[in-house]
Amino acid sequence: MLYMPGVFGENLMDDLFGDFDYGWNSKPVQNKQSANLMRTDIKENDKAYEMAVELPGYKKEDVKLELNDGYLKISATHNDNKEEKDKEGRIIRRERYSGSMQRSFYVGDDFTPQDIEAKFEDGILKIDLPKKEVKQIEAPKYIEIK
């Protein structure tokens, strides 16, 4: 039985009761750290790779796509401020959400921003990366030693 807090965001009580299986201590598939990940599907066809990145609750203006040193970086920032007032103008409820996330994919040094097409629709960022011709690696040429 472990009495030290675990690594990776687990709490002490999870470790303390970890040896007992009561069913109520089972961990969900998605933990706190994975809640903000951009779920991404990547498909390959004859001409391109198609990426579909889920960004629910985000608008097109909240999302940025950047290509730098062979990495395609997707960034999303969201600020939401909701306020309800009663008839006299007093605030009865104020809720705020602010957050950002980013994810990078290595796509290689052969791409330029003009090669990549992106479209944001219904909370999904769709990215098309055209397939590039694979450069053949030359076979080594040996030099005769005399």
Count up the helices: 1
- The computed structural class is mainly beta
Number of domains: 2
The residue fraction in helices comes out at under 10%
Major sheet: 4 strands, antiparallel
Question: Can you walk me through this structure?
Answer:
The protein is built from 1 helix and 7 strands. Helix content is 3%, strand content 42%. The longest helix has 5 residues, at 12-16. The model is unreliable at 1-8 and 25-34 (pLDDT under 50). It starts with 11 loop residues before the first helix and ends in a 16-residue tail after the last strand. Strand 1 (40-44) and strand 2 form a beta hairpin. It has 2 domains: 1-35, no CATH class; 37-130, Immunoglobulin-like (Sandwich). With 146 residues, it is mainly beta. Strands 1-2-7-6 form a 4-stranded antiparallel sheet, with no helix packed on it.
